[in-house]
Amino acid sequence: MAMKAGSGDELNAEINVTPFVDVVLVLLIIFMVTAPFLQGGLQIDLPKVAASGLDVHDGLIISVRRDLTLAVGQTIVTTAKFEDALKRARASERPVFLKADQAVPYGTIVETIARLRRAGVTQLGLVTEPPPTRSAR
Questions:
Q1: What domains does the chain contain, in order, with CATH numbers?
Q2: Given 3-state DSSP classes, what are the helix, strand and coil percentages for the chain, each rounded to the nearest 5?
Q3: What span, in angstroms and rounded, lies between the C-alpha atoms of 122 and 136?
Q4: Four-point Cα dihedral 25, 27, 29, 30, nearest 10
Q5: 45 pLDDT tier (thresholds 50, 70, 90)
Q6: Half-sphere exposure at residue 129, Cβ-oriented, CA atoms within 13 angstroms
Q7: Contacts with 134 (C-beta within 8 Å, 6 or more apart), sequence order
Q8: Is the pLDDT of residue 48 over 90?
Q9: How far is Cα 44 from Cα 61, in angstroms, rounded to an integer?
Q10: pLDDT, position 129
């Protein structure tokens, strides 16, 4: 039996990219939803100050909690191993943001900043929260 040209039994060599695009879009949505949760840091009661906001997603967050424990990113470290943790996190190569509880003594914050400077940090930002807004009556 001879095949006629255009009979519909010919092979189609085109790649169907529709399922690939669907999977990529689903993954994009998943990453967009989960990305804000990845850089949350530790729960700290930040001072309320009216200042313009910083984008802390590209930097390393250093936290000083109320009980004076230090954290580099999500990892709690002792004061003796603070500089080593900064080197492992490559703090000198990217922006660093300091989050300190408002109950932490000023001397502890200054000492932490000095230790960050000794570790080679050149880009340092202090993280605050905006004051509560008053509702109009």
A1: 56-126 (3.30.420.270)
A2: 35, 15, 50
A3: 42
A4: 170
A5: low
A6: 12
A7: none
A8: no
A9: 12
A10: 77
| E-only strand ranges, 21-133 | 60-64, 70-72, 75-77, 96-100, 124-126
Instruction: Count CB neighbours of 89 within 10 A.
Output: 19
- As given in the structure block, the two tokens for residue 60 are 């390393």
- Contact of 41 with 63, CB cutoff 8 Å: yes
CA dihedral angle for residue 109, residue 115, residue 118, residue 123, rounded to 10 degrees:
-50
The pLDDT, as a whole number, for residue 38 is: 66
Mean pLDDT of 26-52: 70
Tell me the mean pLDDT in the region 25-50: 72
Could you identify the residue written with the tokens 């085109």?
14
Average pLDDT for 25-29: 93
> Which two three-digit tokens encode residue 96?
């660093």
Mean pLDDT in residue range 69-81: 88
Alpha carbon distance 26, 20 (integer Å): 10
- Per the model's pLDDT, the better-predicted residue between 41 and 30 turns out to be 30
Tokens of 88: 């492992």
CA atoms of 111 and 83, how far apart (whole Å)? 13
